[in-house]
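Hi D.,

Good news: the full-assembly prediction came through. Inputs first.
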Amino acid sequence: MVVAVVLPGCSFNGALPIDADSADLIPNAFLQITPDNGVIFYCPADEMGQGIRTGLATLVGEELDYHPARMEVRSAGAHEAYNNPEYFIQLTGGSNAVRAFYEPLRQVGADTRALLLSAAATDLGIPATQLTTEDGHVVAGNRRYPYGDFVATAMDLDMPTETPLKPATDFRYIGQDFTRVDALVKSTGVAQFGIDIDLPGQLSAVVVRSPVPGAQPLSFDDSDVRSQPGVRHIVPISSGIAVVADSYWQANKAAQRLTVEWASNSLSQLDSAQVRADLEDAVAANNGVDAASEGDLDTAFNTAKSTLSATFFAPFLAHAPMEPVNATLRIDGDKAELWTGVQAIGVAQGLVARITGLPLENIRVHNQFLGGGFGRRGTLNHIIEVTEIAMAVEKPVQLLWSRENDLQNGLYRPASLMQLRAGIDDAGRVSAWQARRAGGDLTVETLRNSLPGLMPGMPSGMLDGLATGMDYLFKNWSVDPSSVEGLHETYSFPTYEIAHTSVDHGLPLTFWRSVGHSYTAFAVESMMDELAETAGIDPVSFRLNNLQGKPRMQRVVQRAGELMAAMTLPEGNHLGFAAHSSFFTDVAQIAEVSVNNGAIRVHKVTCVVDCGTAVNPDIVRAQLEGSVMFALTATLFGEIEIQDGAVVQSNFHNYPILRMDEAPAVEVEIIESTAPPTGIGEPGVPPLAPAVANAVYRATGSRLRDLPLRLA
Amino acid sequence: MISFLLNNTEVTFDGDPDTPLLWVVRDNFKLKGSKFGCGAGLCGACTMHLDGAAIKTCVLPVAAVAGKAVTTIEALGTPDAMHPLQTAWVEYNVPQCGYCQSGQIMAAAAMMANVPNPTDDDIDRAMTGNICRCGCYPRIREAILSVAASLAHEAVTGESTS
Ligand code: FES
Ligand code: FES
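Then the structure:
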């Protein structure tokens, strides 16, 4: 998700949301140094498993010269000081946090270290040039003084700026493996998630929503609900009907007794077969909007040695983060406090402000650990819900979505149909490349959902106008980047044409780990495998033929090819290869697969990655391992189906997630690099599905072009 | 009124006996380490020990534990005195989002109590009820095997490796 939208003045810029002892030094929004030499780091990105607290603490710690593992890392509050440097709002997504904060946070560390050094110079009466530092201490000759000793003096000094940063050769923490800062709390049950908030007098809310997204209630009968144990309130809200009780279990149980008659809407007649047919019609109509093109395609196809076309399909998917979304809100007079775990806390603050009418400075947001994000926690309909409920019941309220709510009332990765056509020349290069994609536009929709929180002061009518304009723009003139990203960029095709047709069925959409790449890589890398075979060239050499001017990916593919050539396989196992660039990172994967009685088994996945500087190599490896598992779930099982406008899948029995006995071994090789870091949370996802599909072809002779992969 | 042992302390609950143990532990006894993931016995986030055996507590009425001993992650070990599995979890950087990990560790601990030197198949069998959406499976396996190896080493030499 790389969309830079400048929305000036839409973040809170009042006092910093930091509660500190007056003896503590707060040199900037990110650091707090205590007289006993503790360092608290206010992490501007949300920890959802990707290891960002450790990664960003490492950047600050490197220049501050303080071991990141000893920092206390806290989630930053809502404030523009913590805006993502590329998005200009507080947003964690698009695998950009380490990349975007790489310089700014090292600068914060360097300037703070310089401040402490000048305070030490003052206190010790030694020129700063004769002082140095070592892991939280100022060193003067053979004496060491904790940073904390100089906190009081530092408070009266001006903050240095533009302190020179270390050269990479001097790094002590960047590039090293060490324990994640959150490993201990997450291994002992101590880590606090949004669901764990338990305020005095807190009530629990469950919302009954229409099975068909967006449908409004015509009438409801709660007579059988009110008498249930623990039930306190029944509150109609904008998204459905909230049942509020003393506990979640009571609320959820009572909610099953609510009978609602729902209006029908444009989705009510829809089913999965219709979605597929509509996408096929859209591609066949061949009237998509031009998303990118180069060269004369007709001539290129006419002169091609051979041509090939194929159509690929990827279904709707749910994120199913392990912790269902939730939020706890306390409105107390003219103040409000929100506890939740989201990828956009400024938007959360703005939504509470808009709905309650309270000013932003009166709303504190306490972001907790996120029990998985994957894009799901970037759209905040649950924050709207909890605010409406808390205002109605005038008590602190925790709203919790059940797993059924999560799968049936959520937001989805759009279904996509991709038709590819390619021509190859005598030298085994792709000389003509054409891709048409039909499906929904998730960036536009996510932005539209975020506007009310981004601009809490703008009247709803104006927001609607803005949203309508945006929709018009993307449907008729421009293409949502997420709809087509990855359809050609990995390679250096000389002649290509990418076209897009928006097909919006009305099922709510949003970012899903690796976004557009999650479907485009499947199409492109399956196609590349078919083309290599047509050309009579091995898959690795064929890809290298098409990577002129892409030295990073060349190296990744080359190295993966070497590893693949050295593999010895048990009888019956087959290899599939795929490579894809996303979020500025290059990844190649080799899947080792066997097929028995139609069952696909992935034994091992070998990854080669170039993500620039690996700030914490072990976390890079963990992200690739996790990406492989996440992508394998989608490859083998992932499908959200629609029947009569409603989502069929409801829990893990019919939306299965990969389990221990199905998990492949994963090996990761990181290409050594001193280039600035690039994304790592998502780039491991896209190549997996085509790598597995390509291996299945070798095992069975069947080209599977629909996800999830199913052998007839 | 239902009495049971919760982390070695006698407790009583006088609410609805159908209330799942998970919610009694979380809401009434305020132990938040055990998690809610599906409410249907499908994911293992709510795993505790009942008389030493791993059990999914989101579908277990509290009435079923009357007179029995329930152990949660909070009593398996603490940050200052971790269970060997927890030490290994930290050492191998197992957790990502961390939400499933209490359940994973409780499932692994129950297995290790019976099968201190598990094979890959033993691990598959014991851990398959616990979903990790972040996909920490390879590290969970590694961490379990490392504890098994150090237990085996201790058994042979009488020395602890840690
Ligand atoms: S919450 Fe109990 S098994 Fe999922
Ligand atoms: S660590 Fe996130 S679900 Fe397991």
